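Lay summary. Proteins are chains of building blocks that fold into shapes, and those shapes determine what they do. In this project we predict the shape from the chain. Here is one chain we studied, written as its sequence of building blocks.
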Amino acid sequence: MPTLDELARLYDAHAQALFGFLLNFTGSEADTRDLLQEVFVRLAQRPGLLDGVESERGFLVRLAHHLAIDGVRRRSTRERKHAAFGDVQMAVNSEPADADGAVIGDALEQALQGLPAEQRAVVHLKLWGGMTFEEVAKCLELSPNTAASRYRYGIDKLRDQLRPLYNEIQ
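And here is the predicted shape, written in a compact code that computers can read:
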């Protein structure tokens, strides 16, 4: 394992350039910080990774680029999963008992379709799938806290969109 002094030297010498490159590539400061951390974690975990390398910076830029591409692929896969779960038709009331039930069902389906795919997926799996936040998180490759937050934001948006209809029916 490289010494802390060696890692600090590498960070001081290359982190700013890597950050600029990754920020330009990802367009997201949060993703850039995560990727930069991953570059230096790799260096810490794999002693000798830089042995025989002619250009430290060139090697680190290539490593960062490969990690960024892997991140884009993972995100793309995750977004497809969210879209697949979120685009499932929400058969809330298959056969409403009255006209109000039909209006409520239509309004709910329309409100659900108005949610971002990642929130819609979590709401669907939680409410209609009966999953726990841990199960939703595992299914969508999220942390349980992220799943809970997306659920809360989705429910808040649904509540705001459906409140006028609720008030009208009361």
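What the prediction tells us: The radius of gyration is 23 Å.
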